[in-house]
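User: quick one, fold this
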Amino acid sequence: MTATHELTIETQHLETEGVVMVKVHGALDTQTYCTLESKLDRLINHGEAKLMLDLSGVDYITMAGVRVFVTARLKATREHGGIVLLRISEQVANVLDMLQLGGAGGVLRIANTEEEALKLLETPQE
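Assistant:
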């Protein structure tokens, strides 16, 4: 699979107080990760630390992309927030499973629906 090295990011403030939906589309790799990292940093630094990352449009991910999620989770947690990865693709799921970062007991929380993601965001993550 050849990655296109393009990444688009859309944000939407949800009606649930303090939760921001971040929709990510494209390849998340060594050439694009800094775009998402900068966006998440800005959100967290401006007090928007409850983030729902819709990754249904991410068709390719490398370790650089995974690092963005782990770093954002740590920063958001310090600000009494958190992140939930939403609607991850099979490719993203495979990478997270290989690294043992997702699923039960994983560092990253994953949800299939917005409702499930909101419930996870209500629960503090250590």
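User: anything notable?
Assistant: The chain has a mean pLDDT of 89.
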